[in-house]
Amino acid sequence: MSTHHYYQLQGYFRELIELKTLKSGSKLPSEREIGEQFKLTRVTVRQALQNLEAEGLIYRQNRKGWFVTPPAVVYNPSSHLSFNLYVTEQGFVPHTEKLMQQIEPANAYIAQLMNIPEHAPVLYLHRRRYINQRPVLIEKMYINTRLLPGIEKEDLTQSLSQLLKNNYQREYRDMDLVFKSTSLPSSAADDLGISAGQPGLHIERINYTADKQVLEVDYEFWRHDAVTINIAIRD
Amino acid sequence: MSTHHYYQLQGYFRELIELKTLKSGSKLPSEREIGEQFKLTRVTVRQALQNLEAEGLIYRQNRKGWFVTPPAVVYNPSSHLSFNLYVTEQGFVPHTEKLMQQIEPANAYIAQLMNIPEHAPVLYLHRRRYINQRPVLIEKMYINTRLLPGIEKEDLTQSLSQLLKNNYQREYRDMDLVFKSTSLPSSAADDLGISAGQPGLHIERINYTADKQVLEVDYEFWRHDAVTINIAIRD
DNA sequence: TAACCAATCTGGTCTATACCAGTTTAAATC
DNA sequence: GATTTAAACTGGTATAGACCAGATTGGTTA
Question: What are B99-116's pLDDT values in tens digits?
Answer without folding.
Answer: 999 999 999 999 999 999
